[in-house]
Write a structure and sequence with these properties.
Elements lengths: L2 H13 L22 E5 L4 H12 L3 E6 L2 H14 L6 E6 L8 H11 L5 E4 L18 H25 L8 E4 L15 H5 L13 H23 L6 E5 L13 H10 L3 H13 L11 E3 L3 E3 L3 H22 L4
Helix pairs in contact: 2-3, 2-9, 4-5, 5-7, 7-10
């Protein structure tokens, strides 16, 4: 699968189905009372994670908002509570830095010490097109470290409580959501360059410097899709469902490092709320059952396609291979 074809595929999807999707078919009005249920949404101090957290809290759920900044987290909690003063749910900030693996176990431990159930983890947090010189605390390319390695470690610490919740929660309601992107269409052949990630994602994926941050972002987002596929295979007998949504092309802080996207935003980008609805569908829609385990979700809440070579890779064991690779490379965290 050539880079040129991937670029063409992403462009086509951008200007057609995924770029200008039909009206949402699953919205706030379709969500029943969530009293007693518990959700964790990373990166929910702003953007689409914030939009999802608002909806969950408005339906009386207990919601953990995970992020790096105590100040931003406190502000988000205050704003949501002010917007929904009648909610009987709970809202709590959980300090977590996905680019530093040493912060993840303590954050997960705090949640586990307070809860006996967890109905969904939404791995929403991420970074896009950051300078290639940036590294995570453990030396990974910052995008791969934040978008892939950190969420994997967090998921590992929360896996047991999800499995236990699935034993008594309504069938197919316990979910893991690995947020992807339309950029996954331009990932390397098969979705992941193991030669690149064996070196912690530091070597360039392109000889054209301006493209390298974007290709590394694409690889990290495709890796999220492959993680969902691998999770669905590895944990298929637990009752927990994993999906990977492209939330849509949205006006959020994610593009703060891209002058081009900020400039073109008024033409091609949609309000963050719509991305929240894509995540809402992935997290709660009754249309998602075991037959959809590992599926790709496209805007604004539909099961959608992925590049054929990536699907072929996953169908031949590539998802499970990647899951096991991450396990091996994050020992000790």
């Amino acid at each position: 699968m050539s880079l040129l074809y991937g670029l063409y595929s992403a462009l086509w999807e951008t200007v057609t189905s995924e770029g200008f999707p039909p009206k949402p078919g699953f919205e706030e009005k379709d969500v029943s009372d969530l009293s007693g249920k518990v959700y964790l949404v990373t990166g929910a101090t702003g953007g689409i994670g914030f939009e999802l957290a608002k909806i969950l809290y408005s339906k009386n759920a207990k919601v953990y908002i995970a992020g790096r900044s105590e100040e931003n987290g406190t502000a988000a909690v205050t704003k949501i509570k002010e917007e929904y003063p009648k909610s009987d749910g709970g809202l709590e900030f959980l300090r977590l830095d996905l680019s530093d693996l040493t912060t993840i176990k303590p954050a997960a431990g705090k949640l586990l010490s307070q809860e006996r159930r967890l109905d969904a983890v939404v791995h929403n947090a991420g970074v896009m097109a950051v300078p290639t010189s940036w590294r995570s605390a453990q030396g990974w390319d910052h995008q791969f470290g934040t978008n892939v390695v950190g969420p994997f470690v967090l998921q590992r610490h929360l896996q047991n409580i999800l499995v236990e919740t699935a034993k008594f929660a309504p069938k197919d309601s316990v979910r893991v959501v690995f947020l992807s992107s339309i950029a996954a269409h331009v990932a390397p052949p098969g979705g992941i360059s193991y030669e690149n990630i064996e070196a912690k994602g530091i070597p360039p994926l392109s000889n054209i410097p301006i493209l390298d941050p974007w290709l590394k972002y694409a690889q990290s987002k495709c890796a999220n899709t492959i993680m969902a596929k691998g999770y669905a295979e590895k944990y298929k007998d637990t009752g927990v469902i994993a999906v990977s949504p492209n939330p849509g092309n949205l006006k959020t802080d994610l593009m703060r490092h891209s002058f081009l996207l900020r400039t073109l935003g008024g033409v091609f980008l949609h309000p963050a709320r719509y991305g929240g609805l894509t995540e809402l569908y992935a997290t709660l829609s009754p249309e998602i059952d075991q037959s959809k385990n590992g599926s790709v979700i496209i805007p604004w809440g539909r099961v959608g396609p992925m590049r054929s070579d990536i699907i072929e890779n996953c169908n031949s064991g590539g998802g499970l291979k990647f899951w096991n690779w991450l396990e091996e490379h994050t020992e000790g965290f």
